[in-house]
What does this fold into?
Amino acid sequence: MTITITAFERSPDRGRGLARDMRVRWALEEVGQPYEVRLVSFKAMTEPAHLALQPFGQIPTYEEGDLTLFESGAIVLHIAERHGGLLPDETNARARAISWMFAALNTVEPPVFDHSLARILERDQPWYEQRLRALEESIGKRLHSLSARLGDADWLDGAFSAGDLLMVTVLLRLKSSNILDEYPNLAAYVARAEARPAYQRAFAAQLAVFQAASSG
Ligand code: GTB
It folds into this structure.
């Protein structure tokens, strides 16, 4: 059955792989599932056809036969459950990998995402510097704990899993700041993940969308 996901027709990240279709593309590449991409404009995202797939008018979505999913974390979990390679077989190890998926999205992503939004949208506010410092403090707390847990391991809990995939997509948002430099093991963790052939294929595919839009 054909898998179709949605992505920005023109991603504001200019092909840096920061929009949330990237994690879905990467998961599909890791498990070797081919997929098609339907590019949507900001206008189309507000229209009924897209809202029927994604009630909040966002990307990504996932369609496979009569199954439609939204929320990138749920989509990655679905892919990991249906195909081998992203979750361990052993029950407890599998549950721990899923804990890391939730940790990435619920514990680490919120301050990281708010920080990147603040840098884009709140620069002109009189309280900008104060807000940035507060967010950096929150991020620092999370990264300190994550770095301590990772130690000198390659991945968070044994083999590379969907937990690592989501965590790395979150940490990648920090690349344009110098925040990760303070945590060499986390910077190496991100680099290790970026070197995975599946990541590189996914990155190239989303970059090609930006390049095509720029040349058209
Ligand atoms: N919780 C949802 C999920 O995980 O699927 C959140 C989805 C989401 O935030 N989608 C964003 C979106 O559709 C795109 S990824 N936004 C439009 C809207 O809400 O109206 C977030 C994003 C946007 C831009 C950049 N960037 O330019 O760097 C990076 C990430």
